[in-house]
Design goal:
Blueprint: H1 3-16, E1 31-35, E2 40-43, H2 59-73, E3 81-85, H3 91-104, E4 110-113, H4 122-130, E5 137-141, H5 152-160, E6 171-177, H6 185-194, H7 198-210, E7 214-218, H8 223-237, H9 243-257, H10 262-275
Parallel strand pairs: 1-4, 3-6, 3-7, 4-5, 5-6
Antiparallel strand pairs: 1-2
Helix pairs in contact: 2-3, 6-7, 8-10
Length: 280
């Protein structure tokens, strides 16, 4: 057999079994996206978020999460955190804002976003992070929830408990969810009513959320907090509007949306800034 057919066979084998991706360089950025299918960390040059000072009405949970993250960044004991509750109240924004605040303190901290669908590959990710013990890493899983036949939650236990090898000491997990137990209430009730051993079935479903040391609840805001958020955005970006006009338009905006939240307040401010010719 000539060399040319051998080269073609070797090339075909390489396509079938490509070489593993290079080891991630955690010094390349402060934030990364985990691509589980490719087994690689993609650097994020700029995290899309707001300043911690702009998050109004969640002072208590803000201070708790900031203190926990500062402890972790300084190499001190810290807990995994589950941020749960009302939609649009700043759960994801708080995680990103706290990360930015820690960096502003001069502490080194990496933020790695892990999609729910990539949970089965989390073992490979933890291996990469374990090989980089000098970097403190917050794993961020946004909008986390599970359905009845979803076994992904078992993969998440590897992050929270770590199995026999243990979770890497340089890794902590922050997750956000609209559900306190990460699963629909009716699913838990169904387990109670149909399972042969109801208590055991329920324990299996809710035990995942129990593995988070911090449960931080976010609740719907009232009108005063909603208006305070808008005033905070206006002050931060230098937009001056007559008080009676601002109040009337803000209330009308939330009435048309049928809800009040930090997200609705921000969307109103974006509309207001655009109409007033303010570039953000």
């Amino acid at each position: 057999m000539t060399a040319d057919p051998l080269n073609r066979i070797a090339a075909a084998l390489e396509r079938l079994a490509p070489p593993p991706p290079p080891a991630p360089d955690l010094a390349a950025a402060d934030a990364f996206l985990w691509h589980g299918g490719e087994g690689r960390l993609a650097p994020v040059p700029q995290v899309a978020g707001v300043a911690l000072s702009l998050l109004v009405g969640i002072d208590r949970v803000r201070d708790i999460l900031l203190q926990n993250t500062l402890q972790f960044a300084r190499g001190l004991p810290a807990n995994n955190a589950l941020l749960w509750g009302a939609r649009g109240m700043g759960k994801s924004s708080l995680v990103k804002a706290v990360h930015g605040a820690v960096l502003a303190e001069g502490l080194a901290l990496k933020l790695v976003e892990l999609a729910r669908d990539d949970l089965p590959t989390v073992g490979r990710l933890l291996g990469h992070l374990r090989d980089n013990p000098d970097h403190r890493v917050v794993l961020f899983c946004d909008d986390l929830s599970f359905s009845h036949d979803d076994a992904h939650y078992k993969s998440l236990k590897a992050v929270l408990d770590g199995g026999i090898e243990g979770r890497p000491a340089n890794v902590i997990l922050y997750a956000t969810s609209n559900r306190r137990h990460l699963m629909p209430r009716d699913m838990i009730e169904n387990e109670r009513s149909t399972a042969i051993s109801p208590s055991e079935a329920v324990e299996e479903k809710v035990s995942l959320s129990d593995r988070f040391g911090l449960w931080l609840g976010f609740h719907p805001c009232d009108q005063d907090h909603y208006l305070a958020m808008i005033h905070g955005y206006c002050a931060a970006y230098g937009l001056t509007v007559e008080e009676d006009v601002l109040r009337a338009e803000a209330i009308e905006w939330q009435a048309t949306r049928g809800a009040r939240s930090g997200r609705v307040a921000w969307q109103f401010f974006i509309d207001l800034a655009g109409r007033r010719g303010l570039r953000i």
